[in-house]
Amino acid sequence: MKVKKWDIMDYLKTEDDIKRYLAVAFEEGDPEFISVALGDAAKARGLMRKAAKQAGVARESLYQSLSKKGAPQFKTVMSVVHSLGYNLTVVPQKKAG
User: 5, 38, 50, 88: which has the highest count of C-beta atoms within 10 A?
Assistant: First the structure.
């Protein structure tokens, strides 16, 4: 039996796919997941070079920063968010109950 390795790139085909994926990552609130999701979105759109340039880092450094083992600076995160055509906003948390 052949098993294909699961790859998120197989599922990030449209802008809506990318937007939903990023929304889930930010809703989860896990910094590692957010970093990886931003990297996945930039890769899916072919924007890693542009994002790296905006962040002032080498493309290879950006790949590393946005990996599971990476720890990107906030400036880098913002540069990737902007290169994807998004802005970050702050909204009150929903209160349980």
Answer: 38
Measuring CA to CA, which residue among 23, 17, 14, 16 is closest to residue 88?
Answer: 23
Q: Tell me, what DSSP letter sits at residue 46?
A: T
Q: What is the pTM of this model?
A: 0.86
Closest CA to 11 of 77, 63, 19: 19
Terminal Cα-to-Cα distance of the chain (whole angstroms)? 48
Half-sphere exposure at residue 38, Cβ-oriented, CA atoms within 13 angstroms: 34
Amino acid identity of residue 70, one-letter, is: G
In the chain, DSSP assigns E strands to none
Determine contact, residues 42/84, Cβ cutoff 8 Å.
yes
**Tens-digit pLDDT profile for residues 42-82:** 999 998 998 888 888 899 999 999 998 999 999 899 999 99
DSSP-based three-state secondary structure for 66 = coil
Residue 75's nearest CA partner among 47, 52, 46 is 52
